[in-house]
Amino acid sequence: MRRLFFGLEIPAQIKARLLKARAEVSGAKWQSVEQMHITLLFLGDVEEERLSAVCEAARHIPLTPFELSVTGLGCFGQPRAPRNLWAGVQPVAPVASLHSAIKGQMESLGLKTECRVFRPHITLSRFRRQSGSVQGLLAEYGETAFGSFQVDQFVLFESEQRSGGSVYTVIERFLYMTRAMLSSPRLVTSLPMSTPTIRWPVKP
To answer: 96: exposed, middle or buried (C-beta count within 10 Å: 0-12, 13-18, 19+)?
Structure first.
């Protein structure tokens, strides 16, 4: 089994700005630079023999490049006792559209996907049950612009739990291609099946 999810990578300069929003909060488990991403669709455990079909289906998703801004902080749960602190992204519509396209392709393969409402964000910290307040962080960074970047690819990641924490592996990056490019067998067959695997050690 491979534990898989689709996501967007975040540029290093934006990650660096997000790191500055950290503070001492009881119960906070801050995400490392390597962990920061935007989840598009979580697949969960997928059989090894289905991986090639997943990649092939994703290669045929037409992606129209768009600009994405990382703006403001928010939380899931009450600010006095949050479950999750996150950075928001705008506009939501093109991210939601990409999510829907991937979801449709994966469901056409017979894979089960999450039914909850899709809310794109970058997780900055998760909290234990006895968590402190993030009201101060929300007041200070609630409207902060952390930067913008162009989205012209999405990624299939594998998530592995190790003794030292989670390790995310890039299985394949799916680049922008027009419908005309996708309809050209010569071009599609000439593309590399995958990019080199990158393993990111993640601190616990």
So the answer is: middle
Give domain limits for the chain.
Answer: 2-201
As a whole number of angstroms, the distance between CA 175 and CA 186 comes to 17
List own/partner pairs for 183-189 with CB under 8 A and 24 or more apart: 188/59
pLDDT (tens digit, 9 = 90+) per residue, 60-105?
A: 998 999 999 999 999 999 999 999 999 999 999 999 999 999 999 9
Going by C-alpha positions, the residue among 123, 44, 138 that lies closest to residue 86 is 123
Query: Strand 37-46 relative to strand 165-175: parallel, antiparallel, unpaired?
Result: unpaired
Looking up tokens 């909290």 gives 127
Q: Quote the CA–CA distance of 124 and 153 in Å, as a whole number.
A: 22
Highest CATH level, class, for 2-201: alpha beta
DSSP state of 35: G
In degrees rounded to 5, what are phi and psi of residue 52? -65, -35
Q: Which residues contact 93 (CB under 8 A, 6 or more apart)?
A: none
Q: Which two tokens stand for residue 49?
A: 């023999």
What is d(CA 32, CA 42) in angstroms, rounded to the nearest whole number? Answer: 20
Question: Which tokens sit at 179?
Answer: 């419908």
- Token duo for residue 117: 């409402």
